[in-house]
Structure formats: C-alpha cells, structure tokens
Amino acid sequence: MIYNPNTFSNINEVKTTHLDLNFIVDFKCKILDAVVTLKLVTLVDNVSKIILDTCYLNIKSVSCCGAQLEHNLADITEKFSSALHIQLNDKLSANTKFDLIINYCTSAVQWLEPIFYSQTSEKNHPYLFIQCQAIHARSLAPCQDTPAFKLSYHASVQVPQPLRALISAVELVGNLCCLEICRTEKFIEIGEKFLTLYEWNKYELLVLPASFPYGGMENPCLTFVTPTLLAGDRSLVDVVSHEIPHSWMGNLEHFWLNEGWTVSIERKIMGRLHGEATAEFDAIIGWRALEQDIELFGESNVLTALTPKLKVVDPDDSFSSVPYKKGCLVTCSWNVKNEFDHTLAKACHELAERWHRARDNQVFDEFSPDDIKIFTPEQTMVFLERLFEFSPLPFPVIEALINFIVSWMLAIPKYDLDGNKPLYRLLNQTKNGSELAKKTFRENKSFYHPIAVAMIEKDILK
Ligand SMILES: [Zn+2]
C-alpha cells in the first residue's frame, strides 16, 4: 500500500510508466498548449476510473483508444490544487496496459517578463522555466504527482524564433559550458572514485535569470543554478558539488534520504578536493543551520522530523535545512555530537572576538581587508554570525565593519530565496524594521519569482 497524502491520484490502482509530452509555447498569451499521452498499467482488478493531479490546467479533452472519456475537474484546494476524475468506459483487470491522451493548456508555469517586470538580465526576450519540485509537476501536466513511481518521458517543445528550448535529458541539445564553473568535471571525477561511474554521459549547468528562486535545482543532466553563484572569483561554485551527487542518488521515496545522502557525498567531495578541515567546517555550518531552523519551527514541530506528515501542509512550506543536515547526520552516521574539527572556524571566531573588543576603544587600525582575504565566503559568514551573537555593536563599529567587508558583500547572493527569505524575516523582526521590510518587498515584488513572493509574504505579511 503506497501512502502519499500530497497526491489525489488513485496510486494503489494504477501506475504511470511513461509520459509523452507535447508543448507549443505562446509567450504572447502566456499559454502552453499541450497534449500529453500517459502510458498506464493497472495494479488491481476492477479499475473503472483514473484520478490525476492538476494545478490550474484547462482540460479540453480526454480519450482512450480513440473514444472520448467523461471527466471532471474537482474544486481547487488551497494546498494540493485539484483532482481530475476520469471515468473509463470499461472495468479493467490487473496488468492492463493502456494510453490516455489529454488535450489541455496551462499558464501556471514560470514566465519571466523581459521589460515590464525586468525579470530577465538583458531585458530583451521573455523566459520560461519549469520547476516541478516540490509538487508543481501537476501545473505542467495532469499526472500522478508522487515520487512513488519512476517513469520515463519524451517531450517535444515548440518555441518561437530566436528562442531555444532545453530539457533535462540524456540527449540534451546544446553546449552550455561556463568558465566560472569549470570545477564541475573535477567534482564528477572525485565522485566516480568512491561511488560508481557517472551514468548520464552529460552534465550541463544552466545559469538562470536572477529571479530564479533557488540556489540550484538538480534536474538530470541539466542542473539549474542561480546566477549569484557567478561571483567572478569562482568562490561560490562549490554549490555545484551539492547538485552533482543527486545524479547518483536519484529520487528516493523520502526527501530527507535524497538530501541526506547528497549532503554526505558533497562533503566527501569537498574533503577530497580541499582537505578534511573544509568538510568538517561545512558540517559545523550545517549543524548551526539545523539548530537555527529547529529553533524557528519550535522543537516539537512536526516539520523538524525527518518524515513529517504533510497531510495538511504544503510541501513548499516544510522546506528547511532539516532534511539536508539532520538527514546527513543520520545517513552517514558521521557525528551526532557536534564534535568537529574547528580549525577553520577558529580563525573566524577569533576575528569576531577582536571586533567585539573594538567596541570599547573604537580604534580600527588593527583591522585590514587582508584579515578576510584568505577566508572562504562561508568563513566570512561564520565570522559575521559569531559577531552578531555578541551584544549589538555601536554605530561607529558597524560603519567601520561595513567598510571592512564591502568587497565581500558585493559578491553575496542578492536574489535567490536562500539569501532573501531570511533577510526579510530578520528585518521584519527588528525594532523598526517591519515597515522597511514591507516597503522594500512591495518595491521589488514584481522582480521576484512567484514561489519566492509567496514564501516571503507568509513570513512578513502574516
Ligand atoms: Zn539537494
């Protein structure tokens, strides 16, 4: 018996084995005109209906073996959208294979405007990308939106000239090489040494427009990344070492298994590339992130569990470091006592303590940008975090500090959800920051991606 509270589909009666997707993209009307063929097989006897997940799809027709089928779309629900009920003409016995052909159109995908909202970098062409995680595949096509079934797919996408369509597949069109991220092959090479061979033949990175709301999204063969990784000095490209291990791990039944294993492989790659102290330092940062998220949710909150019951929760709202960092602690049984090598953390803490002491004499000659020149971006963040654990600094110290780290700040992520969401939340919590947070959000809202808008709104407008 398969249990998945986030799908409406009758997944214990029927299973999809393949999807054939055909799209015509109309940027002017912001519509995908689509036909999908679902190859299905029944799992039990007497199957008379198929229920699929949908999200704001306009269903035009449903057919099977040339005959039109009765169907109806249930009312939309707040968290999981709506179920498409399809009545079959016969009762099917177990192991019956059949095709359903569904004509529909959708606009509930990620359209980025070139001019009006300025969501694309050069503001010349519109842009469209599809984000299926966590449960957004249902806004692309009527489907059984569950990780319980693995299936193959074929897709054909027509776009107007001069635009190009890219899809995550072994036969990916085009070459998207980027010098900034040239360490990618090294990550794969190291992974192959302690895992199996990389099976997918190709690994491409697609740098998305700045409003892409995630750091990275591990689509097979074609990982999406935020342009904020392109800091100019290759200092942030190690994020890719997290996305690559997903190519080995695939999609397991539970999110924490995917991410827990992936983080542990990522740390192994980092350890072999930069030395064990770097892997241990990453573990220290992970531990801290986990502590902060547990504190934010509340210790007894169900979302701090590795397998939270999401019956009444939108999976997007459950997103945190818990499945990643707690998942890693469990999957690699590495260290559940927070006993790590603190070599790299020590330098950050010592610098923070020096700045803390400067509050008394307010003499800043002893500080130089060279102090953080040898720091990785993560070390600089740990330095700042440590500093903010002390009592609030007086204004002259903050002013000197800003000058001190200004070059580093220019390189920090500004657009994606990982960077933006906590900034808004923290600003909203400060004494006079709530209005500033709301005002800044209103002014920039049209630039952000809809998923980012929804999540930030929940944090600062509730
Ligand atoms: Zn991941």
TrEMBL record:
UniProt KW Repressor keyword: no
CDD domains assigned: M1_LTA4H (cd09599)
Assigned GO CC terms: cytosol
UniProt record, GO biological process: proteolysis
Record text on cofactor binding: Binds 1 zinc ion per subunit.
Pfam families, alphabetized: Leuk-A4-hydro_C, Peptidase_M1, Peptidase_M1_N
List of catalytic residues: E243 (proton acceptor), Y324 (proton donor)
Cofactor: Zn(2+)
Database matches in InterPro entries: Aminopeptidase_N-like_N, Aminopeptidase_N-like_N_sf, ARM-type_fold, LTA4H_cat, M1_LTA-4_hydro/amino_C_sf, M1_LTA4H, Peptidase_M1_C, Peptidase_M1_dom
Domain Peptidase M1 leukotriene A4 hydrolase/aminopeptidase C-terminal: from-to ranges: 343-460
Keywords: Hydrolase, Metal-binding, Metalloprotease, Protease, Zinc
Keyword Zinc-finger annotated: no
GO molecular function: aminopeptidase activity; epoxide hydrolase activity; metallopeptidase activity; zinc ion binding
SMART domains from the UniProt entry: Leuk-A4-hydro_C
Binding-site list for Zn(2+): H242, H246, E259
SUPFAM superfamilies noted in UniProt: ARM repeat, Leukotriene A4 hydrolase N-terminal domain, Metalloproteases ('zincins'), catalytic domain
Family: Belongs to the peptidase M1 family.
Name of the protein described by the UniProt record: Leukotriene A-4 hydrol
Organism of provenance: Gigaspora margarita
